[in-house]
Request: fold
Amino acid sequence: MKEDNVELTNLSFLHAQSNHRKIIGAVASKSQNQQFNGSLLHDFEVLIIVVCSYHEQVEIIEHRIDGSNTHVQVIYVDQDMLEHCMITGDNRMMIEHFLNGELLWDTDEQIDKLRQQFMHFSSPLRERRIFLEFTHFLTLYVEAKHYMKQNQVMDAYNSIFQALQHWARIDLSEKGIYPESAVWEQVRTLKLDVYKLYEQLAFSVETMEQRVELVLLACEFSVMSKMRECSSILFQVLRSRKQPWSVKELVQHPDLSHVGNMLPMVIRKLVYRSLINEVVSWRPEQAGGEREIRYWLNR
Reply:
């Protein structure tokens, strides 16, 4: 092993906990002298990301000093949480260390397969990211329209600016490119059309109200044209069984749970556009003759 690599003898504490925490692998990053190493490494010399399968949405952090006086930060993270961060774009720094770090330990090549899936940004990961970005885009677009009706132009500007960022991430994802934090530099380099809207909103000589109105019109067209394609993961879930789905079941579905409370609004928009169907069912356990709305899709 090379001199600048993390010595495997430093991982004895992981072997001792491998069964208890169901560890499937570990990746390490070393601090680079004279470089900014990010918030996770900070003043530590080594960061070790330990991937587990304990199915808990919480990180466990340890600070250690090994026998050679090396300061080490150890982060235990569940595989499902790592995938969730990849879909949502949360905790981007940890994802970068996971993808670019040195592979120390890999049970049944699970870590290598996971990194390949992340780096190639393949389906269903890409489809789930597109749907998430579309729900954000739609939510902020509706919010901006509401603010404009209330004559709250600055708030509308802020909402529509954020909506454009999600639109940009959709365009990148559709091309198989994982959206980075510096998304506008990505779309500028690729000369995507959404960058022209960004320039229109940010730098045009028109009044702020006129700029917002122009971008809202473009977003209206985008919502119409992108709604079916961006919602493909939802359509797959709806088709996966014959019985109609309640909104609660859809929100809790593993392929849709990352969307959270934004999902009901998207569902209603899809019903309004006749892209999915609704049916009213009677539930005998509900008092007062109340009925439940459920959703389904023609196969």
